[in-house]
Amino acid sequence: MSVDSTPIHLLSSAEFQCLVQRARDQVLAHRLFQPAVACILGSGLGGLADSVAHPVAIDYAEIPGFTKTHAVGHAGRLITGYIGGVPVVLMQGRSHRYEGHSHAQLQFPVHVMHALGAKTLIATNAAGGLNTRFEVSDLMVIDSHIDFLWRRSMWANRPTSDDQPAARMGDQALRGRNPFSHHLIRRSKAIARSQGAVLHQGCYLGTLGPTYETRSEYRSFRWMGADAVGMSTVPEVLAARDLGMDVLAFSVITNVASTDVPSLTTHDEVVHSGNQAGPRLERIIELLLSDMSGQPD
Ligand code: HPA
Questions:
Q1: Cys bridge to 181: 159, 246, 290, 294, which one at CB 3.0-4.6 A?
Q2: What's 242's DSSP letter?
């Protein structure tokens, strides 16, 4: 089997790194560019791409190792350009475990954006609100997560013979560390306050999906201490943390968990609420990036 037709989680470390370099070179062939910040835009939250100055977009289909995303509300393009004066690379749409992709596949684009030079990852997602104070269209900055996707690191998913056991196990010290940057959380909260926007802070629980939760599941996730639940983000932030990147992640609360009355959450509702709340979150991220570049907005 050639490297191109081998599923990413079955590649050796050397083959994986080689594919990362090929993907990086393909992006650089479109534009010689060194992003400082990488962003992953979740369901219905792709609007940040409209704020990119001097954008160059590349379809995922053109980049080795990237996968087409089938989820509604995910465009499937990598965009390079500038926001608030900061060179950024944006994933407009992501893939999910429920689409049949491995952890390593979801983490691959983070490795590529890191190889391009990005030192910070900002991820966004749509999530169901578990905290009883949350309302539809609220925003939450994630300060911790509960991993119900059951894989802590891509290395744990790589049963190839040439991986060193130490690498396969991952660095225990890194793996135990909370990925989310306190400094960036503080800055985001200050910016939200300056905008008069409510920004909750809390714990995100990531599931495999693809279904939304039953009332009992919502109840038990709340009992576990999660404030919001979704089907993404955890693999990407774990990869970023293992690569030593600063990580910031936001949830848009697209529906609130109904634990007492039967109610049905639909993907259309989630995308619609994401679109409603998206501009508020996009503004916070734009201001944060301006702040990072030291430029007045
Ligand atoms: N559960 C899981 N994922 C989600 C939800 C939810 O209620 N809303 C948006 N993504």
A1: 246
A2: H
